[in-house]
Design goal:
This protein has 3 domains: about 110 residues, RNA-binding S4 domain (Structural Genomics Hypothetical 15.5 Kd Protein In mrcA-pckA Intergenic Region, Chain A); about 50 residues, Beta Barrel (OB fold (Dihydrolipoamide Acetyltransferase, E2P)); about 50 residues, no CATH class. Helix content is about 5%, strand content about 35%. The chain has 2 helices and 19 strands.
Length: about 230
């Protein structure tokens, strides 16, 4: 199987130029599914820290590049929404955050903010033994003894060291959200109303902000002001 991906067919979220060259690297297996951007693309095309795959592999072998607190050795490791990338030797830390237009962008943050990451609950189920398993948007599974306070579309903050839940943001009217897909991707506002659609259709959400908008429920993620990037400079 080829390790290359045609630039013209990459997901819209990938921060790559589509017409400069024919191919780019293909993402490997891992979190975020097809939307995940290979780490090499961020190191080479976005940050300019390496010029080639060989240089990227050398840098990764130093164990100084962390994703969500873990050292990464595979340059094709998929990176996606809300991941935390730390360059320990440089003292640089970034959160992957949707930019206007839906492209993933790297937002500089401080070291304290890099100690945890945000995840949207996309599924909740009770598993053998009575525990509840919460599945996040990137495929991560989190176990908890009591699942009564958590619902799909809520957001969790997960500590990157011990992988425990450190904060919980409820999806409800009045919640601060960001759109992560669709024509309003990158916009931030407060949920004014959640319109529940009967049947199999998606619920819609009206969001108030500098530019108020309406979108489907799947396209919004609950955040707080610490995740907007405004206070991290």
């Amino acid at each position: 199987m080829s390790n290359h991906q045609k630039r013209l067919s990459v997901p819209n979220s990938w921060p790559v130029e589509r017409k400069t060259e024919t191919y780019t690297v293909k993402a490997g297996a891992g979190p975020h599914g097809e939307a995940g951007v290979p780490l090499l693309v961020l190191l080479r095309d976005v940050l300019g820290y390496v010029d080639s795959k060989k240089e990227a592999r050398y840098a990764l072998n130093q164990d100084s590049i962390l994703v969500n607190g873990d050292a990464i050795s595979d340059e094709r490791r998929p990176i996606g929404m809300f991941d935390i990338i730390a360059f320990t030797e440089r003292g640089e830390f970034y959160r992957v955050f949707p930019d206007e237009g839906g492209r993933l962008a790297l937002t500089p943050i401080d070291e304290a903010s890099a100690g945890s990451r945000l995840g949207k609950i996309v599924n909740k189920e009770q598993v053998t033994g009575g525990e509840f398993q919460l599945t996040l948007h990137d495929g991560t599974n989190v176990r908890t003894d009591d699942g009564s306070e958590y619902s799909t579309n809520d957001s969790l903050v997960i500590d990157n060291e011990d992988k425990e839940i450190v904060a919980h943001f409820v999806y409800e009217e009045g919640a601060l959200v960001t759109a992560v897909d669709g024509q309003h991707a990158g916009q931030i506002g407060t949920v004014e109303e959640i319109d529940v659609t009967l049947g199999s259709g998606s619920n819609t959400v009206r969001v108030e902000g500098d530019d108020s908008f309406e979108t489907v429920e799947e396209y919004v993620v609950v955040i707080d002001e610490n995740f907007t990037g405004d206070d991290d400079e």
